[in-house]
Every structure is written in structure tokens, then in C-alpha cells.
Amino acid sequence: MLDINEIQKISMDCSMTEFVGTTVLDTIGLVIPGVNDALLQQMQIDKPYKSLGLLSSRTGAAGQINAADEAVKSTNTEIISIELPRDTKGWGGHGNFIIIGGYSVSDVRRAVEIALEYTEKYAGELYISEAGHLEFTYSASASQALNMAFDAPIGKPFGFFCGSPAAIGLVMADLALKSSPVEIIKYMTPNRGTSHSNEIIAAVTGDASAVKNAVLTAREVGLQLLISMGSYPEVPGTPYL
Amino acid sequence: MLDINEIQKISMDCSMTEFVGTTVLDTIGLVIPGVNDALLQQMQIDKPYKSLGLLSSRTGAAGQINAADEAVKSTNTEIISIELPRDTKGWGGHGNFIIIGGYSVSDVRRAVEIALEYTEKYAGELYISEAGHLEFTYSASASQALNMAFDAPIGKPFGFFCGSPAAIGLVMADLALKSSPVEIIKYMTPNRGTSHSNEIIAAVTGDASAVKNAVLTAREVGLQLLISMGSYPEVPGTPYL
Amino acid sequence: MLDINEIQKISMDCSMTEFVGTTVLDTIGLVIPGVNDALLQQMQIDKPYKSLGLLSSRTGAAGQINAADEAVKSTNTEIISIELPRDTKGWGGHGNFIIIGGYSVSDVRRAVEIALEYTEKYAGELYISEAGHLEFTYSASASQALNMAFDAPIGKPFGFFCGSPAAIGLVMADLALKSSPVEIIKYMTPNRGTSHSNEIIAAVTGDASAVKNAVLTAREVGLQLLISMGSYPEVPGTPYL
């Protein structure tokens, strides 16, 4: 039987070869060099990779998906799957669980490292108050992760905005679309596309400046409405937009 | 880039035309005067309204649905959709996201105002302890919102009771049905009808006194069982039943 | 109307005949001696029982399912249903809601008593940190509950391991399967088999020593990875493996 005192002796400085790193939003990055065959079969992956990179957070979705997008853009890897658990540690949104595949361990390890770095950056557009939260992300050129999660056209500008409680997200979407000539490519609600999160999510594409403007409008609207609920949001990073 | 200090300068006293108000249970009421066409198409609303009223909370479902029911009863508006995100800010239940449609902004604004007022009243029958929660609602005459969410016969008395952890809700339902000649019209569980909440939900109809009696029995049972778990519930409002 | 001061007068020492007991993880055990006919019909139980035993928790799934397994093994009762709400009081996992059926109240009451006792024991293999959680369970001989929930072969050794955030659970599964000649019988992810929890869950069968070894490997791996996220887990019981 495990002596409970032994737990405290385990180092926070993990030395396992599978460990890549951790970052904000309770995010961990891991690699599986050559996944067990029986497990691989259960996972129902329809791609030939045996080296897997994993990015997994309790809080945040779009930021980490955008971070994974950067990772696959600059390494010889591919997104295998993106899942959005209903999480956020008691808030109304998602966490994320992203699997990246590659032919070599060093490729997927590098991809996970990049994803962790960008997760820290992109966490700058997450705003969490006592009442709810807002999330934004922007990419000048969407790649495979944003395409898989939000139907983003590959190589095109991509904007994402989301608000919770859900009604805030809908007004953000309405005013963002009215402010800018963008095309809405994804619309998600508690019952549609989400894991029953308390969010309205919208994703847009179009010219870079129009997409960016739509995201900035959504942010301005979202902050006003979220703050009207009686508390100021904290930001787990530094706003980058 | 957003200067994080600018966030603190945003007033809690929201001046946006879309803003109607906020109330207990992290509830916000908003209006969209004339929804953007591309957004409207994504929303897949099969009704002709372009003025939308929104009621959205982190916590509570039956109370706000009953409040929306009062709103559509006394205004020229209609319920468009009711969604129940898995929320309650870390507890085992739902939040809500309700869209009300109308032909004029003033109609939907008035509906949202009424829904906010009744949300405060109906929050009086929500009981939240460290261990779980109970929710009750009663209507002498159900209208469109209660019908859409719980199959309530229009114009008839309606009672609702729910307990979490789920087992408490089942014993509440059993004893309420044994105590009173009511008809059970809705039964929801973690896997059936809910967004995987930790609740058993039952809704009943029948004669006014029988329905009320069933709700009161459910409340008496629920409070005893919830308190047996080791903590007393708080009430975000004032009990009205 | 309910006087709110009356609530404080309700005893925590519940005297209702339906009450069996409470234990760790916000778990309550209840019985319904002869369930109301209209309610029974709504419940869509396809078994002939009218005496129901209920085990229901805010936190934990495998431990309580294993506890219910022990209960049906040693009483004349049967599992009717197992549901896993998305709960854990703000963490990334499940609660549980288990219904046990029997022909007599004393049978189901005894079953619930046993399930409560084993819930306390099996809670010893739940580890909850600020960042996430791990859950393990082991049975030398699986019975009906473990079979229903995880396809465990009846009468065979059964092992279960789960980690959150999800990526931790996947590395646990990979290394457990590599460490021991066991067969994987269940694989669950945020989108597959769970209620959108932030977990990877794996269940295995095989020789007793191999199954136990797989669980111990998973625990060793899981603790290292969970602790790498920056906080030490607490255990709501005493580790028994």
C-alpha cells in the first residue's frame, strides 16, 4: 500500500522522458514516443503516427488550439484530434485535449514545446471575472488545428470570440459582424457544438484587417457586458491584440 | 494591444443600448434590436423575429424559465429557444440561456425586464449547500416557456422539483408523487434530458392545490436529505412558496 | 411561505425511513421501499424491482462503482443503472448515480450500507490536486456493476485508472499497458464514453498480479505527472493499493 508521506517526496521537477513542460491555465505538454499497440487500436486514430504529442489544459480552448496551429505549421507534425472537455475549473467553458502526431519523437516534442510557448502568449486574450469569461484568438493564417476545430479556411485570417454567460457571446457576435465585413464560419451554443458550456462562440474569416477589427469589437463589447455583471476580469497572461 | 489598466476604467454601469440589467445568480438580460442577417442564419431560428431578448445565467434553470414564462405571458413576445448549459459555478446543475423574440425592441426589452424581476423572485426557491442543491418552481398557469422546456400543458398549474446529488431528487419525486394526486410530465436524469447535471428533475401538473402540495412535499423531503449531508443551504432570494 | 429560519432547525441526523447514510465525496445512500408506479414508468426500468437502493456522489466514479459491485456481490440485489454526471465540484471528472434493485427493502438497504462502507475505502485511491485528479480502482473479481460500467468480464480481475487533465491519463494508460501483460477493455475520452469530463480513462483485465501491477504503474506515472503541474494531491481516504 502506498504510504501517503511518499507522495510529498515526488519532485515537481518531473524527470520522465514523456514530460515536456507545463504552463498557465493548468496546461501540461507530454509526448508518447511509441504508443502501445493495443492502446493505439482503442484510440481509433486513422493516421500512421506512433509518436504522439499531447497538449492538455483545464482552462481554455481557442488559445491552445491556435497554439497547436502554430506548432504544426512549423514542424513536421499533424493534428490527430482536438477534444473540448467541459471544464474551466468551475467556470462556464472548456478545457482542451489535443493530440499531435509525427514520425519522430523529436518532431512531436518540438511541436509540444511550441504549443506550450504559444499557449502562454495566447492566454493573454482570456478574461475571467467572478461572473463569467471571455476568450479571443486571432491568426493571420490558419492552419490545420483551427481548420479542424472551427472550419477555418487554411491559409486565411481567422478570428474567434466567445463570451460566458452565453448571452454576452451572442451580443459580441452580433456587434462584431455588424462592425466588420467578415464571414461567420462557426457558431456554437450550449446545445450546439460545445460540451454544454455556458458560452456562445463565433469564428470568422475575411481580410486580415476586417477579421482583426471584428475581434477587437467583440472584445470591447464583451468587456463592457462582463463588467456590468459586477466584477472586473483577471487576465492569466498579457493581452496581445 | 490592450493596456490592462484600461479594463479597470470600464464602468460597471453599462451604457450600451443592448444592456437591460443584471440580477441574482449571475444573470444578465440583454436585447439585440435587429440581429445581423448572417448571424441570424447561423442561429437557425425558424421564427420571423429580428428583435431578440436574451436571459442568461450561470446558475438556475427552472426559476428563470418560469420567469421567462411570465415575461411572454404579459408581452407581445414568444420564446425562441431555451438551452441549459452544464454550469452552476462548480455545483451539480445547470445555468440557462433563453432567447425571446418579438417584432419590436420595446416589446423584447420589456419582456427581458419582466424576466429579470421574476428571476429575483423565483431565486427564492433555490437552496444551495456545500454538498448539493435543490430547486423548485410553481406556476398557477403555465405558458410557452414551461411548455417548451418541460412539456407543461399550457394554462394549467405546473410544479417542478429537482435535487442534487441526483439520488435526493429521486426520493423527492417519489414522495411528492405519493403525497399528491398529480401527473408526472417530465423526468430528467444525468443521462436523460439534462446536460449531464448531477440532478434528478421531475415536473408535474394537475389541480393547483395538488401541484402546490407536491412541490411543498418535495421541498420538505429535499431539505431534510440535503441537510443530512452535513451543511445547511443558503438561499439566494426569499422563499415564496 | 417557508420561514428561512426554519431551515436551520432541521436536524443533520436524518430520521426519514429512506435515509441510509452519508460518507466521503459528498455521497448519500438512500432507499425507496416501494417506488411510485407513475415514477417507475418514467424511469424506464426494465427489471421487476420495486425496492430501490440509491448511491449518489458529487465526486468519484470508479470507486463507487466498485463499491456497488461489492454490494451486489454479497446481497440479493442487482444493479439497475449507473449514470456518471459531469461533476466533481469544479474539478474535471464525474460524480455518480447508481440504482440498485431488489425484492425486499432490507436487501437493498443492506446493499446501500455495503456500498457506503466500500465507498469510504475505495476513496483512498482518489488523488486531487489544485491542477487535476487521478482515480484508481482494483477488483480481484468483477461483478455486475463493473461489467455494466466498464465491460469488465464477470469473475475476472479488473483494474481502472484515470487522469485529469486528460493527457496525463493517456500517458498513464500507455505506460501501464507497456508494463504489464493486461488486456485493455475500455478507453474513454472527453468526447467518448464520458460526460465530457477532462479525463482519459482506461480499464484492464488479465491475471490478478498483472492487473494490479498495471494499476500501480499507472499510479506511479500519474502522481509524477500530476505533481509536475505544481501542487501535491490530497487523498480523501487512505490508499489501499
Automatic annotation (TrEMBL), chains A, B, C:
Protein keywords: Bacterial microcompartment
Domain of life: Bacteria
SUPFAM superfamilies: CcmK-like (SSF143414)
SMART domains: BMC (SM00877)
Pfam families reported in the protein's UniProt record: BMC
Residues covered by the BMC circularly permuted domain: 14-129
Gene Ontology CC: bacterial microcompartment
Subcellular location: Bacterial microcompartment
InterPro entries, per the entry: BMC_CP, BMC_dom, CcmK-like_sf, EutL_PduB, PduB
UniProt protein name: BMC circularly permuted domain-containing protein
UniProt organism field: Mediterraneibacter gnavus (strain CC55_001C)
